[in-house]
Write the structure tokens for this entry.
Amino acid sequence: MMTRQVILDTETTGLDPKQGHRIIEIACIEMVSRRVSRNTFYKRINPEREIDEGATQVHGITLEDLAHEPKFVDIADDFLDYVRDAELIIHNAPFDIGFINAELKRIGKPAINEICTVTDTLVMARELHPGRKNSLDALCERYAIDNSARTYHGALLDTELLAEVYVAMTRGQDSLAIGLDAGNATSVSGVVVALARPANLKVVRANAEELRQHAEHVERIDKASGGKAVWMAV
């Protein structure tokens, strides 16, 4: 049975939960058979502290916007029920997991890693595209995904974009189940994340007629190049 997949993103008051920064927005969307379902979880949260100016410039959310929103403790059980036993798909997972675990620890709940597995799409992207920019915007551009509505970072929009990016990055796999076995996992800032791995694809070999047609096509190309085809220079 395939593990349930949930795309997750958060927005926060700042960059470091160890300095008391808090989650102000959390969004989760469910993916079933490589399609986003209508089963979503989205909350804005009153962080009970000021929001850094730099953070507001990124996501556009002010403390005044959150004055009447629930606190994390008020939505924690619903959130945990939604994600329980799922594979969380997150871009730059240590950031979001660090904030979620800090919130859960604050209210005496177990770490999210104890009830979910985590796949980090940033780790996947760096393996697929080494030496290139692998931000969410860069990946949207690379895979021709429309991110024109992303004038600010927003948890709900970012999960929708990440779902499309994830499908694009894993296109061709025969299974979306990415295991956490010893040979296929790593730890980033204390967060265990799954790495992409090749799918076990069926090999379909060419038959005799297809091989004959291929040989004729290669010969025509070689003649057209005046015998300069590099693959003929053995």
About this structure: Residues 204-234 form one domain. Residues 174-184, 186-201 have pLDDT under 50 and may be disordered. The helical segments are 53-59, 72-83, 93-106, 121-128, 136-142, 155-169, 208-224. DSSP finds seven helices and seven strands in the chain.
